[in-house]
Design a protein that fits this description.
Blueprint: E1 2-9, H1 13-23, E2 29-32, H2 41-44, E3 48-49, H3 56-68, E4 73-74, E5 77-81, E6 94-97, H4 98-104, E7 115-119, E8 123-124, H5 127-140, E9 144-146, E10 151-156, E11 161-165, E12 170-178, H6 184-189, E13 221-224, E14 229-231, E15 253-254, E16 291-293
Parallel strand pairs: 1-2, 1-12, 2-9, 5-13, 12-16
Antiparallel strand pairs: 3-8, 4-8, 5-7, 6-7, 9-15, 10-11, 11-12, 13-14
């Protein structure tokens, strides 16, 4: 049975970022991923980078996250609010009246909009390539990344957490971070500690500009609070894709860094998220909490 200081379940941008920062501080770290890196929600995300939230705690966390992100496309972001909204908690933003919005953004239909917020540092990144960059750097710093290694069972003891993978191998860690997105709940339910999480499906559309509309595209991140949608521009080369996603590579256990990925504003579409089968039922155990879940960052 292998042992590590910290184990992380999930090789999305949250798990891989945590692995990088832990490994560069000399913490023995292992990442378990049932598919392949950035193969889940991270690879499908819109990549909007922003630090404007009406919740001050989220705004501060997002601000620090954006400050640590390099290589993203900075376009600025516009948020449209109704009269019932408040903009007091956000950081580093400019509040615009309805008249100022109409003057600065004549291309928008502002019916029902009471005021707007402009965030100068907002923009977008390639979440897939960003996650690959963190994965490579984490491995360079000594982290172990186990792809196609689904976690079947979690048993928490007074001093460590034991994990059983779908290939029958066992691992023991002093601390466990679960950053498995919508799969977090079922994993922590084995410990009787499932958080109140629910999966949310977003409809994503890629729109191609008509030649007659040249020059009329919205060149910034737009978040319409009233109507519940957000959008971002795309580079000309980043059009919609057709055909099946690439097949996942054969199961491998990566312990050395792959070739350096491109900057975080480029990348290729991710493959499907791999599944797994586990034998036996969940294993519960008592003891103090040695598990935690990941926190949001400034990208979505």
């Amino acid at each position: 049975m292998s042992t590590y200081d910290v184990g992380i379940v999930g090789a999305g941008v949250h798990g891989l970022t945590a692995a990088y920062h832990l490994a560069r501080r000399g913490v023995s770290t292992v990442v378990f991923e049932r598919g392949r890196r950035a193969g889940g929600p991270t690879g499908q995300a819109s990549g909007v980078v922003r630090a404007y939230y009406t919740n001050r705690f989220l705004a501060e966390v997002a601000r620090d996250s954006v400050a640590a992100l390099t290589g993203y496309v900075r376009t600025g972001g516009l948020y449209l609010h109704t009269a019932a909204d408040s903009a007091d908690a956000g950081l580093e933003h400019e509040v615009l009246t309805a008249a100022e919005l109409a003057d600065r953004f004549p291309e928008l239909n502002l019916d029902g909009t009471a005021f707007g917020v402009w965030e100068e540092r907002a923009g977008y990144a390639d979440p897939h390539a960003t996650a690959l960059s963190y994965a490579a750097r984490a491995v360079e710093q000594g982290a172990t990344l186990l792809e196609h290694s689904g976690v079947c069972q979690i048993a928490e003891g007074p001093r460590s957490v034991k994990l059983l993978l779908d290939d029958g191998s066992g691992h023991e860690v002093d601390r466990l971070l679960v950053a498995a997105g919508p799969w977090t709940g079922p994993l922590l339910d084995q410990l009787g500690a499932a958080p109140p999480l629910s999966a949310e499906r977003h409809v994503v559309a890629a729109l191609r500009q008509r030649p007659a509309d040249a020059g009329r595209a919205v060149p910034y991140v737009l978040i319409d609070i009233q109507h519940g949608y957000y959008s971002r521009p795309a580079r000309p080369a980043a059009g919609s894709c057709s055909g099946p996603w690439p097949r996942p590579s054969p199961p491998t256990r990566t312990t050395s860094a792959p070739p350096s990925p491109p900057p975080s504003t480029t990348g290729s579409p991710p493959g499907p998220h791999g599944g797994h089968r586990c034998a036996g039922g969940p294993r519960r155990s008592a003891g103090g909490r040695r598990c935690t879940t990941s926190a949001p960052t400034g990208s979505r």
